[in-house]
From TrEMBL:
This is IclR family transcriptional regulator. InterPro entries: GAF-like_dom_sf, HTH_MetabolicPath_Reg, TransRegBhcR, Tscrpt_reg_IclR_C, Tscrpt_reg_IclR_N, WH-like_DNA-bd_sf, WH_DNA-bd_sf. Residues 1-10 have a biased composition (Basic and acidic residues). It comes from the Bacteria. Residues 30-91 form the HTH iclR-type domain. It holds the Pfam family IclR_C. The keyword Repeat does not apply. Signal peptide: none annotated. The keyword Cytoplasm does not apply. Residues 92-274 form the IclR-ED domain.
Amino acid sequence: MAFQDNDKNKERKPRGRPRAFNEKTEQNTIKSLDRAMVVLEEVAAYDGASLSELSNRLGESPATLYRVLTTLAQHQIVETKDSTQTWHIGAGAFLIGSAFLRRTSLVETSRPILRELMEITGETANLGVEKDGHVLFLGQVETHAPIRAFFPPGTLSPLHASGIGKVLLAYFDTARLNRFARSGLERFTPHTRDTLPALEADLDQVRERGYSVDDQERNTGMRCIAAPIRNALGEVIAGISVSGPTSRIDETQIEELAVEVINAATRVSQAMGASADQPPKP
């Protein structure tokens, strides 16, 4: 027996969202939840923060913040260390964040290639994408050496002072690059490209040679070499890199390491559907 819809003229609502989903009004915002997300972002920005520190930074009363933090802690989104009375991101937040990593095959595909790259070069291998004007690190395989770079998954780094960041910036169109530069190019070391002309000249080199070099531009004494990862359309969607101290990565080794990084990026790109001879594009 077939069932008939006796109300065909009624407007169908998209599944999973209310009729007013596209309306950007305050009525669609839960203020308490919004406050909780702001608190969570602040906790994530620091390696441990006390209640009074969070109160000062956010301009909220300690009592209000404590209620928010306690609620988040019940879901293991944050946790507190009794010995230091500081709040930290909890295991629950990691589990939720892992869902983002599972959403794309990029992380899974890159993992064995990152490990091989680390073994070949002896330096820490990294995977990152662009996120709101920053590099969002999705994966890392650390070197066995005692002194090493450390960018755990979820870490954000400035695009203009990062090897992966400059690989991504190199394939921004002119308008997008100008918008990014207007937001400010913070100077971290004397080597940082903190003006648009200096950055553009560097990005020209990135496109010409196929890799970028972060030469102590974010942290003095550290170098990073990165290459772009492309999808089936040839679009640059991510970057892969090796990073380590200048005592191990000196200027004479950059080109040799770049060959290995480009090879790793090409392998990931091909796994994502890109052809081997396809040039990168925005």
